[in-house]
Predict the 3D structure of the following.
Amino acid sequence: MTPVDRRLLAHVNWPLLGLTLILFGVGVLNLYSASGFRLEEGFALNPYYRKQMIWGLLGLGVMILFMVFNYRHIKIMAWPLFVLTIGLLIAVPFWGKTIGGAQRWLSLGFFNLQPSEVAKISVLFLAARILSGKPEKMGMWELIGILVVGFIPAGLIILQPDLGSGMNLLLLLGGIILYRGLKPNVWKVLIVVVPVVMWLFYSYGLKEYQQQRIKTFLNPGEFSQGAGYQIMQSKIAIGSGGLWGKGFLAGTQSQLRFLPERHTDFAVAVFGEEWGFVGSITLLSLFCLFLYSVFATARDAKDRFGSFLAAGVFFYFFWQILINMGMVLGLMPVVGIPLPFLSYGGSNAVVNFCLIGLVLNVSMRRYVFKE
Amino acid sequence: MSLLHDPEAQQPPRSGLLLLQVLIVALFFSLGLRFWYLQVHKVEEFTAKARGNQLRRVLIRADRGLIRDRHGLLLAENKPAYALTLVREDCEDLDATLSQVSQWTGRPLEEIAERFEQGRAKAKPFEAMVLVDDIPFDLLAVIESNSVFWPGLEIDVRPRREYPYRELLAHVLGYVSVADEEDMDNDPGLSSGDLVGKAGVELVFENRLRGTKGLRQLEVDVSGRILREEIVEEPQAGEHLTLAIDAELQAHAMAQLEGQAGAVVVMEPFSGQVLALVTQPSYDNNMFTTGLSQEQWASLRDDPRHPLQNRVIQSVYPPGSVWKVLMTACGLSSGLLQYSDRYHCPGSYRVGRRVFRCWRSGGHGTVDLMDGLVHSCDVYFYKLGEKLDVDRISEYAFASGFGAPTGIDLPHENGGLVPTREWKERVKGEPWQGGDTLNLSIGQGFTLVNPLQVARFLSALVNGGEILKPNILADAEREVLGELNLDNEDREFILQAMEDTVTRGTARRIYRPDARIGGKTGTAQVIRIGERRERMEDMPYEHRDHAWLASWGIKDDQAYVVVVMVEHGGHGSSGAGPVVKAMYDYLFPLD
C-alpha cells in the first residue's frame, strides 16, 4: 500500500465526512427511539441502535481503507471483481443461507455476506470504467452493451428474489448512463421501447404480491390492511408530528407500535413524528447537502473515471433517499428499500461507508494533476 | 495544450452535472413540499387519527335505580349477569369466532350472527357488542380459559334486573328488557346490551332510573393492550324510587282475588297515594328481562284471561249502580233534586213501548233519595235521569274525572267513555233516545269506567271535593286536578247514604262496628238478557255480570278508599263484597 501523502490529508473533503458522521449520528439516535416501546410500566428497548453503532464503527474502518489507495487502481480491478460477483451470485441458490424466506446470504463463517451488496459496488466500478472511456454522448450499441453487463447481476438478484436490490442496481446503472448522456436518436428509440418493456415486466416479471403493492399504491382506500395500512400509519405518524414534533421518545405512533417496520424501512416516519416539520426539513437539507458534496466531487474530479465513480455513488444514494422517503410519505408504492443512515441494517451501513470512502478518495486526489 | 488532447483530462459531461444539480433541487422541493403538506397543512387531521389510534373511549355503565315499596321493601334490584361480548376491531376471524360462540352456548349460529349484525350498525369503534346475554356459570369458566385464542371476545359483567315478588307487582313495576334496534334508533343514550324500561314504572320513570353513563379513556398499543386508563367522567347511578304501594297490602289483595279476574285499588283519599293496585291474573315480569321466547310470548298474549292487561287502568267496564252516587251528586248540585223527592217504584218503568225494570222485580214502593240510594232503586234513578237529561249528566261526569285518563304515572291508561248526544250521532249514527238516558242513569249501556276513576271519585267525596292525581310514587307531589261541584251538606248526605248502604242496604256484607264504612255496590251487565234475569249459577262464565264494590273506610286518623271489581263476579255484594271486607280487616286490624 502506498503511504498516504501529507498533501492528500490536507485535501480530505471535511464537509462530506462531517455530513456523513452527522447523518449517521442522527440515524443512531433515531434508532434508539425506534427500538423502544411503551409498556404498562415504563419503557423497553430492542438492541438495534447498539448493533447499528457497532456496524457503523466497522464501516468507518472500511471507509478509511477505501480512501487510502489511489482509486485509479480500481480500473484494473473492475472486470475481475465483476466476474467474482457473478460467481458469488450464481453460488447463492446452491449454498446460500435462507433468512426470512429469501435466499440472499452466503455464509463466510464469521459473517454472512450478501452478494447483492457486493454487486452494487462491482457494477458501479465496471460502469464507471466502461462509460468514462469516451467523452461524447452514448450511441445505441454502447447502450446495449452496458445494459447487458448490468442485467446479468440484476437478473440474478431479482431471481433470489430480491426485487428491491435488483431495481436499485438497475437504477444506479441508469443514473450513470444519464450522467454520460445519450444521443438524440437513442432517446427517440427509448421513448417507444421503455414503456413496452415496463408493461411486460409488470405483467410477467412481477409476482402477484408485488403487483398488489402497486395496485395498493394507486388505490390506497381499497386496501386497509397490508401495504395500505402501513402507508396510512406512516402518514399519520409524520402528519401528527406537526411543526415541532412530539419530542424525542414521545411519538405515540412509534412507541405504541402502530407504525410498522419502524426501525427499518419506516424509520424516517419515527423521526418525522418526534421532530416535526422543522426536524424533517433539517434532515432533508442534510441529505441534500450530502448529495451536493458528492456532486461537487464529481464536478471537481481530476479525471473522468473519478467523476463517473462519484456520480455513480450520487445515484446510489439519491435513488434510495427518493424511493424510501417517497414511500414513507405516501408518494410511491411500498418497496423494501432502506433509507441510508436511518434504517437499521448492518451490511447496508458498511456498503454506504465504503462508497463514501470512495468519494472521499476521488475528492482528496482532485488537485494532483492540476498542480 | 497537450492536456486538452488527453481523453482522461476531459471535463466531466456538462449535461450530466446539470442533471445532478436539478435532481438535488427537485428532491428537496418535492419531499419538502410533501412534509409541509402532511405536517403543517394536514396536521389536525393526522393528530386526530393518531389520537384515535392511541386512545379508546369506553362507556361506563350506570347502575339502574332500585325500586322499593313505601316501607322500604326491595321490589326491583340489580343482580350481576355475565354477558359474552365482542370487540369487532380486535377480532381476527369473525366467522370462526361466531361459530365458536354458537358451539359453546348451543345457540344457533344464525341467531348469534343476527345479533352481531344488529349491534354492528350501531356500535361505536371499539365498543363491545353483546352476543349472548346470560352465560351460565359453568360455561363461564370454559370461555375464560379459552379466551386467549379468541381475541375480541370478552366476558362483561353487567347487571340483570330482578323482581323478587314476580307476579305481585308485574303491572305496576312493568319490566326492562335489552334495548332493541328501534330503542337505540330513538335514544342515542342507549347502546348495545343496555336495559331499557318497557312497561309500568320502569317505562314511565326510565329517565330517572337510568342514570348517566361515565366515560373511561384507555391508552392502548397496537395489540389492544391497555397501558393506562383514566376515568374522564364518573357514571351517575340512577335514582332510587319509592312507590306509594304497600307490598304487603298488595299481596293481601292479590290473595283475595286468587283464581278470579278482577282489580283492587286502595287509595288514600286525602293524599291521592295509591297503596295497592292489584290486577288478577298476573304474570312473572322476570320473564321479560331475560328475553322471552316466542312460545312464552304467544301463551301470554293468547291467554283468554289476559294476564298482561292491567285491569285497574287499562280495562273499562260499565259502572253499574256505583254510578248512582254520581247521579245523586249531579242531581243535588243542579238543584233539580231534593233529599225529600219521593218516587214510587212498582218494579218497572215504561218509556214508550219499552219497559225498564228495577233489579227488585217486586218494586221498592215509595222511596225518598236516601232509601233510593241505600237500596239502589233503579226506578228512582230512571226518573231522576229523565229529569236531569243526558247533557247535564255527561257534563257532570266529565267534570268528576270520568271519560278521560286519571293521569296516574303508568302507561296506556284507558279513560273509558261518558256518552253524549254528539258521541252517539258520530259513532253510532243514531240520535240519542230516552232509553239511552235511562241506561246511563243506572250506569249501564254505553258508559265505561276504569276502577281507578271510581276510586278517585270516591276519594273526592271523602276529602272534601278535591279531584286528585292518583300517585304511584311515595314522594310525588299532591296534585289537585279539579274540584267536585258539590256543596259540603250534599257531600255529607251522600257519605251518610253510603254508610247506610253498609249498615242496612246492599253492602251489609262489609259492615264492621269499629270503623265508619261507606259503600256502593254495582252489577254491570255484560250482555242484555231481555226481560227475565237468570240466576248467576245458570249462566256461562263469560255472560255473568261484573261485580263492583266501591267503598271508603275511616277509623281514627286513617282513611282509605277501596274499590274492587270482579269480572263476571255476579252481584256486587256477593262477588266483590268479601274481597272488600278482607281488605278492611287488614287495614283496620282488631287488636
Residues 6-364 of chain A form one domain. The mean pLDDT of chain A is 87.
